[in-house]
Amino acid sequence: MCVKVACVGGGPAGLYLSILLKRQDPSHDITVHERNPEGSTYGWGVTYWQGLLDRLRVCDPESASAIEAESVRWNEGVAHVRDLATRQPGDEGHGIGRHKLLEILAARARALGVRLEYESGITAENLPDADLVVAGDGVHSVLRTHHADDFGAELTPGRNSYIWLGTTKVFDSFTFAFVETEHGWIWCYGYPFSSEQSTCVIECAPETLAGLGLDRASESDGLARLGKLFAHILDGRPLIGRAAADGSTQWLTFRTLTNRSWYRGNLVLLGDAAHTTHYSIGAGTTLALEDAIALAEALRESTDLPAALARYERERKSALLSLQSAARYSAQWYENLTRYIHLPPEQMFALLGQRHSPLLPYVPPQLYYRLDRAAGQLGALRRFKRWLGPKLARGAHARTLTSRK
Fold first, then answer.
1. What letter does residue 361 receive in the DSSP assignment?
2. How does strand 174-181 pair with strand 239-240?
3. Among 12, 62, 173, 251, which one is least packed by beta carbons within 10 Å?
4. Quick one: which H or E segment has residue 64?
5. pLDDT given for residue 249 in this prediction
6. Three-state secondary structure along 246-275?
7. Segment 149-171, tens digit of pLDDT
C-alpha cells in the first residue's frame, strides 16, 4: 500500500526515516520539509558507538558505509585535573561532523526518490496533506507545542550552564579537562570529528559563569577567556563559536524533555521532539536514529496506523528508560563535581566512568571506588551492587515525587 508521509524537520531522524521507508516500499510518497536553507545546520561533531554502526549496516548498508568512511575513531579517554592527567582505555567511539552526516543522509534520501524541500516552514496551520506527519522538528517542536495538552510535554531544566564550541585542535582521544578558578570549577569535553576539527563542550555552575563574566562577555572576549583557561589542552589552537543575535556567546541550560504521549491522530513525534537526554552521555543522535528505525519497523509490521504508532511509542519509551536514568545521574555527577574532584586523578576518572550508576550518589566516593574494583573480581559483590543501585534510585525517585505533592 502506498503511503504519503511528510517529515517535518530535516535532521538525522527525519532524513533516516525517509530512507528506511523508501527502502521498505519505493512507492511511498515521502517529503522532508526543513525550515532552514540546505547546508546551514549549526553544530560541530556528533558521537556514536559501534553498536549503532552495526544497526545502521543492517538497515541501510550504503549510508552506513558512507558514515563510517567519514568518521574518526578513538578508544581511549584522558582526564586533565589541574596539572595532572590520567589516560584510560575505553570502548571505541566514533565522531562525525553534523554537517557531513546530514549531507550523507540527504544524498541517500534523494537517490531513493525522497523529496527534500528546504526553506519550507511547516506549522499546525499549514500541515501537508499526508497519511502520516512526522514531527522531527527538535526540542522546540512547533507541531508538538501546538498540541501541548495532547502530548503532555514536560521540560525539566538542569542547573549547569554549557556552550557548544569547535576547535582546530584535533584531540587523539575523548578528552576531559577540569580547571579550578577563583569562582569555582569549569570543565570541557572534547572529541575529534574530522581530521581537522574537534568539538569542545564547556560546562560550569551558574555562579562560576557569572563570576568569570562569561554570561555577559562578547563572543570574542568569551572565546579568548575560555581559550586561556583551556590552553593546556588546546595547544594554542583557537575555540570557534557562533554568536547570538546580540553578539554574545550562546551559553545554554540543558532541558530534559519527556512526553506523556508520542502521537496524536496521524501526527507522531521523533527524536528531540519526543525526548532529550543530557549531552554528557553522547546519545542524542544515536537515539534519534534508533527512533527512526523503530518507527519504520512498526509501520512495516502493521498497516493499521494507530496500532503501528502505539507499538512505536511503547517500544521506544521502554528502550529509553535506562538511558534516561543514566543521563540524569550523569548530569548530577557534574552538578556535584566537588564531591569527586579532589580524589586522586585515577580514582576521579574511574568514578567519572561510573557516573551513570544509581548507587554512586549514596556511597562515599573512595568507598565506591574500592567496591567497584573489588566487584570486578568478585561476582557476588557485583550482583549485590547491581541489585542495590536501582533499589536506592527507586526510593529516591519516590521521595522526590512525594515532595512535589
1. G
2. unpaired
3. 62
4. helix 61-69
5. 66
6. CCECCCEEEEEEEECCCEECCEEECHHHCC
7. 999 999 999 999 999 999 999 99
47: number of Cβ within 10 Å: 24
As a whole number of angstroms, the distance between CA 40 and CA 116 comes to 14
pLDDT digits (tens, 9 = 90+) for 52-84: 999 999 999 999 999 999 999 999 999 999 888
The C-alpha atoms of residue 179 and residue 182 are separated, in whole angstroms, by 10
Q: Please tell me the distance from the alpha carbon of residue 293 to that of residue 67, in angstroms, as a whole number.
A: 16
Element (H, E) at 7: strand 4-8
Average pLDDT, the chain: 90
Element (H, E) at 108: helix 98-111
Query: Is-contact 357 388, C-beta < 8 A?
Result: no
pLDDT digits 0-9 by tens, 211-248: 999 999 999 999 999 999 999 999 989 999 976 555 55
Distance CA 136, CA 267 (A): 10
Residue 130's nearest CA partner among 17, 13, 31, 262 is 31
The reported pLDDT for the residue numbered 385 is 46
Q: Give me 119's grid cell.
A: 526553506
Separation of alpha carbons 343 and 365, rounded Å: 8
* Residue pair 106/41 in contact by the 8 Å Cβ criterion: no
β-bridge mates for residue 7, sequence order: 32, 134
Q: How confident is the model at residue 5 (pLDDT cuts 50, 70, 90)?
A: very high
